[in-house]
C-alpha cells in the first residue's frame, strides 16, 4: 500500500505544479495586472508606476519562479486587491465554502442514493418515473434560478429562512439544497444503473436462492457493489462543489472561496488566484485519492491492482 | 438571453408574492441596512478606486473644504478659510476643537502628515491623480497650514473638497493603509465599529461630530453588507432585511415602482458618460483605416439615435450628451457642434469618403452589452459591419493604451470631480489613451488646465471641446443614471454625483 500512496503523492505534486504554471501563464495572457490593479481612474503614468512597483515588467518566468519559491515556503504573498495576506483572506472564505460543500454533497448523497435504489428495485414504476423527473429537473434548472425561487418562497413568502448571508446555520439551508440538487441527478442515475445491473447478476440470484432476506440482498450484496462508481463520482462532484459553487455563493451572498476566485480573476489579483487554484487542484487530488482508497476497501479486487 | 429571461421571471414572481413577507421594522432598531454590490478592497480611501469607497470615505472622514452637492458652492469643513498666497501655495486656517474618533485632537500636524504621505508616489496611493498635484504641506502654526502644488492647479479646491480626506497623523503612521482599512479612524459623521474586508461594514453615529456643513447625522447605525446579485438584494428588501439599495437596473426599478407601494424608487443622474472612441490618429493595425477620415467619424456620429437609446435603454434621468465631458462640470461648454440622428446623411458621408459599400471594423466594449449591441445595430444600418468584442475592462484598457482599438464603446465617471479637466483633459492631452493625438486640442487643454483665471479656463475648454466636436474624434452618447430603491421608512434624496450620503438620510 505504501508504494502505491507514494506514487500517487508524487503524481499529485506534479499535477499541482502543472496546474499552477498553466494558470499563471493564462492570467498573464488575460490582461495586464497593473491595469486591473490601478483601476478605472488611473492614467498611463499611474499604471507604469504600479508596473514597476510590483515588478510586472519582469519576464513571466522570473515572476513565476519567485511566486513558486515563496509558495513552497508557505508564503502566498499579499492580495493586490485587498492588501491583506492571501492566507488570511482565503482562510476566512474557505470555511464558508467547505461547510457548503460538505453539506451539499451530504444532501446529494442522502437523497440520490435511496432514490436510485428504490428506482432500481421497481424499474419503470411510478417511483422510477418520479425519480427520473426529479433528476431531469435538477439537471435542467440553472442554479441561480432555483436559488432565487427558494429565496422567493422560503425567504420572502413564508419568511422561514434568511434570504442571504452566512451568519447562522439557517443561512446554509437553501444554498445546501441548491448546490446538492445540482449534484444529485448524476449520482442518482448512476446508483440506479449500477443497482439494475447488479440485481440481474448471478450472485444476487444465488443470494436470494440461499434464503437471504431482501434487505440483506439489497444492501449487503447489491448496493456495496453498485456504489463503487458512485464513490468516484461523488469525489469529483465534491471537488467541483468546493471550487465551482460560484453561482450559489453569489446568489446567496456567501462570500466563499469560489466567489473570491471568480472575482479575483476579473481583478487580475494574481496571488489570490494562484493560491486558490492550488487549493482547488489539491482538493481534486485529495478527493480522488480518498475515493480510490474507499473503493479499494469496498472492492478487494482493487487492492491487488 | 435565457438567463435574463429566467431572472426576470423569478423577479416577477417575487414581486407577485411579495406582500406576505414578515418585514422587520428597522426604524425601531435604529439600524439602516444597505447593500453594496461590489466587494470594496480597502476602506482606506486612498487605497481603493471604487464608488463604494467614496461612499464610506464621505461618512468616515472629512475634507478640508466641502462642496454643496446641490449648489456646487464651496464652504469650509475642517478648514474655515483659505486663500492662494501665490500661484502654487494655498494657505488654510483650520477649525479648532475637532476630535478624531479615537479622541485625539485634529491639528495642523494631521494635515501636514496626511498630505506629505499621500503626495509621495512611492507610498502607492491607488488613484494618483487625486493626490499627485500636491507637492507637500507645511505647518505655520497649530491651526494654519500651507499646501504647495506642483504646478498651477486651479482644481485644487475641488479635490480638497472631494477625494482628499484628513487622517490622524500618529495613528496612520502606526497602522498604515492596511490597518486603517481594518480599523478606520477619522473625524467624519460616522465611526466604524466593524469591518469584514469586502463583506460587511458597520458604522455608528459619531456623537462628537463637529459643526460641519455635512450636517448632523440622525440615523444611529448603518449596516452595510455586500450582496453581489441584484435579485438577492431585492429579495432582502422584500423580506425586510435591507432598507436601501442602489445601482438597481432600470427594468427592475421600473417593476418595483409599478408593483409595490412599500418602496420608494428614486432615479438620479450620475457623472458617467458613455461614448464611442474612434482611432482618428490611425494607431491601430487596421488598413486602410476609415476612422482617420473626418467624414467617416461624422457618419458614425450621425448614425446613432442617441435619444432612442436614452428613452428605451438607459431611461430615468439620463440625457443625450454631445461633449467630451459631463454637462455639470466646470468648463464643459454645451454650445458645440452636435450631430443629429440622420442615417441617410451618414450613408452619404460614407460614400463621399469612398465607402459606398461600407466597411467592416472591430468594435470593442467592456460593459453594458445591450447598449453596445444597440449601437452596433445602428452602425450596421448605415453599412458599417461590426466584429463585436466584449472584453474585461483591464484587457480593453491595455489594448486601448497600445492604440490597437479602432472603435470602442467606453464610459467615464470622472471620479465625481465636477471639473471638465477630470474628463476631457484625461483623454485629449496626447497620452496613451488619446485616440486623436491632436496637437491643437492638447495645447488648448494645457492652457485651460493650468490657468487660475476662470474666464480663461472657460474659453480654452470651449475651444478644445469645439474642436473635438468639429473633428468628431469621439461620438459622445449619453449620461448614465442610477436607481435607488428604499423602504418608505427611509427618507433620502439622492444627489447627481452618485455618492450615498448617510448624513442626509432620515427615518420617516
Task: Provide an overview of this structure.
The complex is a heterodimer of chains A (305) and B (508). Chain A is mainly α and 305 residues long. Chain A is built from 15 helices and no strands. In chain A, helix 7 (143-157) packs across helix 8 (173-199), helix 8 (173-199) crosses helix 10 (214-226) and helix 8 packs antiparallel against helix 11. Chain A is globular. The N and C termini of chain A lie close together (10 Å). Chain B is built from 16 helices and 18 strands. In chain B, the strands form 5 sheets. In chain B, strands 11-16-12-15-13-14 form a 6-stranded mixed beta sheet, with helices on both faces. A 4-stranded mixed beta sheet of chain B has the order 1-10-9-8. In chain B, strand 2 and strand 3 form a beta hairpin. The longest helix of chain B has 17 residues, at 454-470. The radius of gyration of chain B is 24 Å and the shape is globular. Residues 1-6 and 8-25 of chain B have low confidence and may be disordered. The interface between A and B is large, with 50 and 58 residues.
Q: Which chain pair shows the most residues in contact?
A: A-B, 50 and 58 residues
What would you call the structural class of chain A?
Answer: mainly alpha
What is the mean pLDDT of chain B?
Answer: 90
Beta-strand fraction estimate of chain A: under 5%
Question: Which spans of chain B have pLDDT < 50 for at least 5 consecutive residues?
Answer: 1-6, 8-25
Number of strands of chain A: 0
Radius of gyration of chain B, CA atoms, in whole angstroms: 24 Å
Principal-axes shape call of chain A: globular
User: How far from one another are the termini of chain B?
Assistant: 40 Å
Helix content of chain A: over 70%
- How is the main sheet of chain B built? 6 strands, mixed
Specify the overall morphology of chain B.
globular
- Average predicted local confidence, pLDDT of chain A: 83
State the helicity of chain B in percent bands.
Answer: 25-40%
Helices of chain A, by number, come to: 15
Strand proportion of chain B, as a percent range, falls in: 15-25%
* SS elements, strand count of chain B: 18
The helix-strand sequence of chain A is HHHHHHHHHHHHHHH
Structural class label of chain B: alpha+beta
Query: Unreliable stretches of chain A, pLDDT < 50, 5 or more residues?
Result: none
Oligomeric state of this protein = heterodimer
Amino acid at each position: 500500500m505504501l508504494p502505491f500512496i507514494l506514487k500517487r503523492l508524487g503524481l499529485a505534486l506534479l499535477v499541482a505544479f502543472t496546474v499552477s504554471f498553466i494558470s499563471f501563464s493564462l492570467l498573464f495572457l488575460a490582461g495586464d495586472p497593473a491595469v486591473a490593479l490601478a483601476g478605472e481612474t488611473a492614467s498611463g503614468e499611474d499604471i507604469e508606476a504600479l508596473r514597476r512597483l510590483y515588478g510586472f515588467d519582469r519576464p513571466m518566468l522570473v515572476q513565476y519562479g519567485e511566486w513558486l519559491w515563496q509558495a513552497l515556503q508557505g508564503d502566498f504573498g499579499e492580495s493586490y486587491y485587498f492588501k491583506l495576506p492571501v492566507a488570511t483572506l482565503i482562510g476566512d472564505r474557505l470555511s464558508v465554502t467547505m461547510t457548503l460543500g460538505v453539506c451539499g454533497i451530504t444532501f446529494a448523497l442522502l437523497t440520490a442514493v435511496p432514490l436510485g435504489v428504490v428506482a432500481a428495485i421497481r424499474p419503470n414504476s411510478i417511483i422510477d418515473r418520479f425519480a427520473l423527473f426529479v433528476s431531469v429537473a435538477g439537471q435542467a434548472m440553472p442554479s441561480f434560478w432555483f436559488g432565487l425561487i427558494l429565496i422567493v418562497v422560503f425567504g420572502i413568502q413564508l419568511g422561514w429562512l434568511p434570504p442571504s448571508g452566512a451568519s447562522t446555520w439557517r443561512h446554509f439551508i437553501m444554498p445546501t439544497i441548491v448546490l446538492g440538487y445540482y449534484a444529485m441527478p448524476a449520482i442518482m442515475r448512476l446508483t440506479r444503473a449500477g443497482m439494475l445491473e447488479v440485481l440481474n447478476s448471478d450472485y444476487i440470484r444465488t443470494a436470494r436462492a440461499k434464503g437471504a432476506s431482501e434487505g440483506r440482498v439489497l444492501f449487503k450484496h447489491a448496493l456495496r457493489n453498485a456504489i463503487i462508481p458512485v464513490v468516484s463520482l461523488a469525489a469529483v462532484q465534491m471537488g467541483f462543489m468546493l471550487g465551482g459553487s460560484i453561482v450559489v455563493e453569489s446568489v446567496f451572498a456567501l462570500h466563499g472561496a469560489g466567489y473570491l476566485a471568480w472575482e479575483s480573476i476579473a481583478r487580475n489579483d494574481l496571488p489570490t488566484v494562484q493560491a486558490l487554484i492550488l487549493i482547488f487542484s489539491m482538493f481534486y487530488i485529495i478527493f480522488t485519492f480518498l475515493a480510490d482508497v474507499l473503493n479499494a476497501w469496498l472492492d478487494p479486487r482493487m487492492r491487488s491492482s | 438571453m435565457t438567463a435574463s429571461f429566467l431572472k426576470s421571471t423569478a423577479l416577477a414572481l417575487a414581486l407577485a408574492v411579495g406582500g406576505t413577507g414578515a418585514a422587520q421594522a428597522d426604524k425601531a432598531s435604529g439600524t439602516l441596512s444597505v447593500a453594496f454590490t461590489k466587494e470594496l478592497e480597502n476602506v482606506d480611501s486612498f487605497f481603493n478606486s471604487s464608488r463604494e469607497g467614496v461612499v464610506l470615505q464621505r461618512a468616515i472622514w472629512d475634507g478640508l473644504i466641502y462642496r454643496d452637492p446641490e449648489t456646487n458652492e464651496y464652504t469650509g469643513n475642517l478648514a474655515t478659510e483659505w486663500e492662494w498666497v501665490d500661484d502654487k501655495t494655498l494657505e488654510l486656517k483650520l477649525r479648532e476643537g475637532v476630535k478624531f474618533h479615537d479622541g485625539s485632537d485634529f491639528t495642523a500636524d494631521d494635515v501636514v502628515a496626511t498630505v506629505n504621505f499621500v503626495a509621495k508616489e512611492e507610498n502607492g496611493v491607488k488613484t494618483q491623480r487625486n493626490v499627485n498635484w500636491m507637492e507637500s504641506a507645511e505647518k505655520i502654526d497649530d491651526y494654519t497650514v500651507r499646501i504647495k502644488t506642483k504646478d498651477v492647479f486651479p482644481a485644487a479646491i475641488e479635490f480638497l473638497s472631494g477625494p482628499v480626506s484628513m487622517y490622524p497623523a500618529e495613528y496612520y503612521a502606526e497602522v498604515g493603509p492596511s490597518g486603517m482599512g481594518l480599523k478606520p479612524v477619522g473625524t467624519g459623521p460616522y465611526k466604524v465599529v466593524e469591518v469584514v474586508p469586502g463583506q460587511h461594514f458597520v458604522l455608528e453615529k459619531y456623537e462628537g461630530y463637529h459643526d460641519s456643513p455635512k450636517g448632523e447625522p440622525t440615523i444611529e447605525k448603518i449596516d452595510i453588507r455586500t450582496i453581489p446579485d441584484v435579485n438577492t438584494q431585492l429579495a432582502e428588501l422584500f423580506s425586510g432585511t435591507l432598507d436601501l439599495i442602489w445601482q438597481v437596473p432600470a427594468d427592475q426599478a421600473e417593476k418595483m415602482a409599478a408593483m409595490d407601494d412599500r418602496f420608494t424608487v428614486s432615479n438620479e443622474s450620475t457623472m458617467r458618460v458613455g461614448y464611442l472612441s474612434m482611432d482618428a490618429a490611425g494607431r491601430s493595425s487596421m488598413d486602410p483605416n476609415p476612422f482617420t477620415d473626418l467624414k467617416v467619424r461624422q457618419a458614425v456620429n450621425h448614425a446613432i439615435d442617441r435619444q432612442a437609446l436614452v428613452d428605451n435603454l438607459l431611461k430615468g434621468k439620463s440625457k443625450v450628451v454631445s461633449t467630451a465631458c459631463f454637462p455639470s462640470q466646470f468648463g464643459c461648454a454645451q454650445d458645440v457642434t452636435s450631430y443629429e440622428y440622420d442615417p441617410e446623411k451618414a450613408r452619404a458621408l460614407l460614400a463621399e469618403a469612398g465607402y459606398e459599400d461600407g466597411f467592416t471594423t472591430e468594435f470593442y466594449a467592456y460593459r453594458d452589452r445591450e447598449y453596445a449591441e444597440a449601437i452596433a445595430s445602428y452602425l450596421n444600418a448605415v453599412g458599417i459591419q461590426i466584429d463585436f468584442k466584449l472584453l474585461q475592462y483591464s484587457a480593453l484598457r491595455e489594448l486601448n493604451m497600445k492604440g490597437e482599438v479602432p472603435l470602442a464603446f467606453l464610459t467615464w465617471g470622472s471620479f465625481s470631480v465636477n471639473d471638465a479637466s477630470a474628463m476631457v483633459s484625461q483623454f485629449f492631452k496626447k497620452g496613451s489613451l488619446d485616440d486623436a493625438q491632436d496637437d491643437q486640442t492638447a495645447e488648448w487643454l494645457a492652457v485651460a488646465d493650468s490657468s487660475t483665471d476662470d474666464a480663461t479656463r472657460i474659453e480654452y475648454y470651449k475651444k478644445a471641446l469645439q474642436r473635438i466636436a468639429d473633428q468628431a474624434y469621439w461620438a459622445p452618447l449619453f449620461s448614465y443614471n442610477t436607481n435607488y430603491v428604499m423602504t418608505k421608512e427611509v427618507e433620502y434624496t439622492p444627489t447627481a454625483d452618485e455618492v450615498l450620503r448617510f448624513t442626509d438620510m432620515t427615518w420617516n
